[in-house]
Amino acid sequence: MPKQRQTCTRCSMRRQKCDRKSPCTRCVQNKEAHLCTTEWSSGYNPAIHRKYPRKALLNGTREAGIKPQAYSSTTSLPNDVHSPMTMPFRMSGNLEQPLRDPSYISAANSTTSTDSTSGLTAAPLESEVLATYGRSEFADISVASLLSAKEEYEFQLSLREHAQNVGTANSSSKEKRSHSFSPAAQSVEVHHLQSLLPPKEQVLQMIDYHSRCMAYWVGSVYDEPSFRESVLEAYNGTEQISLCKHDWLWSALLFSILSASMIGSSEEISKSWGYSNAEKMRLSRTWGHSLISCLHLGDFASKYHIYSVQAIFNMHTSEHLVGSTKEWAVYQATGLVIARGLGMHRLGPHPEDDIAPADMTTKQKEALKQREYGRRIWCGLASQDWLCSTSQGNYNVQRRHYTSILPRPFEKETWAPVKDDNSPVDTMVTVFLHQVAYELSHYLDEMLDAPDISAKYNVVLKYDAIIRSIHLDKMPKFLRRSTPYDPAWDKWPWVFWARRSYEASAAHKVIMVHQSFLGKSFKDSRYTYSRWACLSSSKAIVDAMETRYPEEPQWWIEQAFVVTAGLVLGLDLIHHRSSSGGATSVEARETRSYMDRAIATLETWPTSSVASHGVRLLTSFIDEHAKPPTAKPSETHVSSEEALNTTCAQPVVSVVEEASRNIDPQASLPVPEMPEQQSSSAEDDCFVNANWAGIEWDVDMIDFEALVDPGLNGHVFFEGMLGVAGDDGVGASNLSFF
């Protein structure tokens, strides 16, 4: 059986060496990457495809009806007739490089060859005419030549169509060619991105799902109705978007939404779109990479645009779930720089802010939208920076360095102002989260300024009371558990999910405040309150997150809440064993029960990298607890405590806090009687704020080693996650992001 040919059809027809890549280097250099294939459209025929091109003389003489043998071998012919004359076919058109086919000789060359024989003597010509009298002019036509001509005709048609598409793209983007790709690489990348777009019906389904169920979580930083209209305009009544004809930064936002919708949607929803669980992770990661490619094709780092910030800001809904947290962290910092370059940090009060949108002109209303979207984006960027501060030990956004005001709540369709905090508006969630994040940044500052352990613990108690009071007093009413659920809110499906999620977030923020003293609380009775606060908060998180609802998206922050709660419960379980010499107490059995529930909750997210690695980590705690004690309880306790004491000497090093830094504020816990600083009373109404901007780190970037006893396999989670894979002078009055 003959070996399958590995040379591409283009190199084979050119009779050139092929490096057998796909596409091969020669085709890429000749701008024919889209034609590079090893499959022959009508089958490989050596009689046709291995045939050397005919010489121009033969074609020229046949067209004149002259038989080549009629010429005497001694006849003196022009040099161009004796030359090989292998000038390839050149397609008429303004292509950047000629398209060649050695098997085809242009009509121009044939005419030239015929003309070049006009200087020959007439006698041989007359004798040849007599010799061929009565012979058909089609005598030399064979089936092979007909098939070759047909294939060449179809090939030239495809080349013309491609040339027209390339010409259109080049004419619109010649002066803004990407600096991140060579011309050849850019051509290949564009072709690859185009092939990754799903069918039109699925694109619209994902955009609608993101708008209805996920946009609130990122604070509605883009205009969902307008974006959907722009997508329909891009299709222009067809079934395919030609990406090269549109702004690459707009395409980046499109891929960002597709990636978030794919990995964030429930398994039932994605199956209704035609995608299995195995495809969710792969496609979301692929579209995330496409988002990055579009940003570079659009030169986002030098050509600032609001699309870039929106696409980057929306990345955190998917990048953590697919295990790309470090990449997200890099682009998050870039998004902050672009936002400053667009002047989003200087969107202060504007004279037209007080005009009712109904009384505005079209131009004024558009300017209002731009200001509000800019404020939402800046508010979200600042919030996520501050929420990360307790884990990172620093933050980049200083309150005194910007003048932008907080975004105001508006109706999404009419843009009418909303003043009742019992009416669900996602902007209210954004503002509430901003307030909690701002207090956490102050908490970091005071912890850094505290001179000793006693002063630091006073700061912890102070902010424990502040965080609880914010969740009790400043949270929007429609999110509070004490507010009865209104059936009219069903048109905003996210409200029901958010009420539960914010409860868990509030509890998580309490853990963030107390985490640096959690280790000491197992040994020193002065810090017993921290142990109680963390344990009760952890149980509240497990209780709140135990049930998933239909259509509810999966958020990596909620999963990180559960992982953090499981870590605290696991530490308590280990210390129960140490203090009781291996005996099982009632408290230990309760803690073990909550850990089992936490693992079961994480297993309800089968397509999340965060959840899967969280299961492995918490399972390692349970396995460690099941082992018989190998050391005296006192020795184990002391060694663990020494490690934790070293950690707590640093203001923000505790690992539980780091696991929580990706999360936003939400849950509340009953507050027991505690030190003087504890002013909050125990109430079930203690909920928190919006989860949408829980844009902090992912468990991927966390070091859990400081919280575990020596010998406990704490690397299971950490190593697994590592293995997963503008003008500054723009003012508020004349700012235009678009």
Automatic annotation (TrEMBL):
Stretches the record annotates as Disordered: 664-683
InterPro entries, per the entry: Sec_Metabolite_Reg, Zn2Cys6_DnaBD
Looking at the keywords, is Nucleus present?
A: yes
Is DNA repair one of the keywords UniProt gives this record?
no
Query: What keyword terms does UniProt attach to this protein?
Result: Nucleus
Molecular function (Gene Ontology), one example: zinc ion binding
The places in or outside the cell where this protein is found are: Nucleus
Q: Which ranges carry the Zn(2)-C6 fungal-type domain? A: 7-38
Q: Which GO terms describe its cellular component?
A: nucleus
Please report the name of this protein according to its UniProt entry: Zn(2)-C6 fungal-type domain-containing protein
Organism whose genome encodes this protein: Periconia digitata
